[in-house]
Each structure stands twice: as structure tokens, then as C-alpha cells.
């Protein structure tokens, strides 16, 4: 699916028409994000009407899942694992270091498991999981990805 650069009612309708299976609130939000790049506030009432849900229910699902966005994403996405196994080998310090990499081109966040516990601390850069990450190695990977 090709992302559009801005929200339109037609882009939301197009995204919702591509949902395979029942049109749940979560599936609708994921489809809109895939189509538009994020879920704009103006899409919430459209999704609520199509899913027979309240706007509060749609907003609740939107804000519960950290993978759903309400604004456009930066070009490079970094998520540091803060699960217990990664914390035991320095993930908190890695995350603090990673926040210094944040810029308009780089979003930095966290998750609580990347499924790479044996190789912690782990991070994900643009969907690619890397293990045994040091602050310097993460900065290098982000630099390559953003550059």
C-alpha cells in the first residue's frame, strides 16, 4: 500500500475498504496508519461511524497501542527494549543515550520486549532488531540509517 502525504476522507475510506476480515477498531486504525502514515484526529469519527463504536472507544484503542501514531513519523525509527532481561544488561542507560539521538529525522521510543533477550540489550532501528547494542554502536546504526 502506498502512503499518501496527507489525510483526506477518501484516503480513510480507501484504507478501510482494504481491511480483510471484520472491520474492528484496531484493524481500521492499522489500515489508516498504513495508508496515511499516521491516524489523524479527523479520522477518528469516520472510523467510529464505520465500526459502530464511540469516538472515545476509538481514541482509547489509538492511545493504548504504542505502534499507532497520531502524527507523522520521523524518517528513522528507534525503539530500545526495556524488558527485564535487557534492563539487566544496561538497557536503561542505552535508552538514555538513545534519547540524545532524537531529532526531527529520528524518533526514539521504547518497547518491553523485542524477543531478542539472549542478545540484550536490544534495539530496533527501522524495523531491524539488533542485539548487544552499545550507545556508540546504536549511534552508528542510526547515523547510517538517517544518512
CATH topology call of the largest domain: Glutaredoxin
Structure summary, number of beta strands = 4
Radius of gyration: 17 Å
Principal-axes geometry comes out as: elongated
Q: What is the number of helical segments per DSSP (H or I, 4+ residues)?
A: 7
Characterize the largest beta sheet: strand count, sense, and whether it forms a barrel.
4 strands, mixed
User: Would you identify the regions where 5 or more consecutive residues have pLDDT less than 50?
Assistant: none
Q: What is the first-to-last residue Cα distance?
A: 25 Å
What's the order of the H and E elements?
HHHHEHHEEEH
**How are the strands ordered across the major sheet?**
2-1-3-4
Helix-residue proportion: 40-55%
What's the level 1 CATH class of the largest domain?
Alpha Beta
| Helix-and-strand structural type | alpha+beta
Q: Please, how many domains?
A: 2
Proper CATH architecture of the largest domain: 3-Layer(aba) Sandwich
Amino acid at each position: 500500500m502506498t502512503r499518501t502525504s496527507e489525510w483526506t476522507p477518501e484516503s480513510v475510506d480507501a484504507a478501510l475498504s482494504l481491511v480483510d476480515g471484520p472491520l474492528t477498531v484496531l484493524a481500521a486504525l492499522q489500515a489508516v496508519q498504513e495508508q496515511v502514515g499516521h491516524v489523524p484526529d479527523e479520522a477518528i469519527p469516520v472510523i467510529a461511524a464505520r465500526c459502530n463504536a464511540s469516538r472515545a472507544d476509538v481514541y482509547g484503542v489509538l492511545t493504548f497501542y504504542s505502534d499507532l501514531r497520531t502524527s507523522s513519523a520521523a524518517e528513522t525509527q528507534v525503539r530500545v527494549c526495556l524488558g527485564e532481561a535487557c534492563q539487566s544488561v544496561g538497557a536503561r542507560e542505552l535508552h538514555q543515550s538513545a534519547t540524545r539521538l532524537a531529532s526531527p529525522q529520528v524518533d526514539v521510543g521504547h518497547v518491553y520486549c523485542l524477543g531478542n533477550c539472549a542478545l540484550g540489550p536490544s534495539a530496533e532501528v527501522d524495523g531491524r532488531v539488533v542485539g548487544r547494542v552499545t550507545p556508540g554502536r546504536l549511534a552508528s546504526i542510526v547515523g547510517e540509517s538517517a544518512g
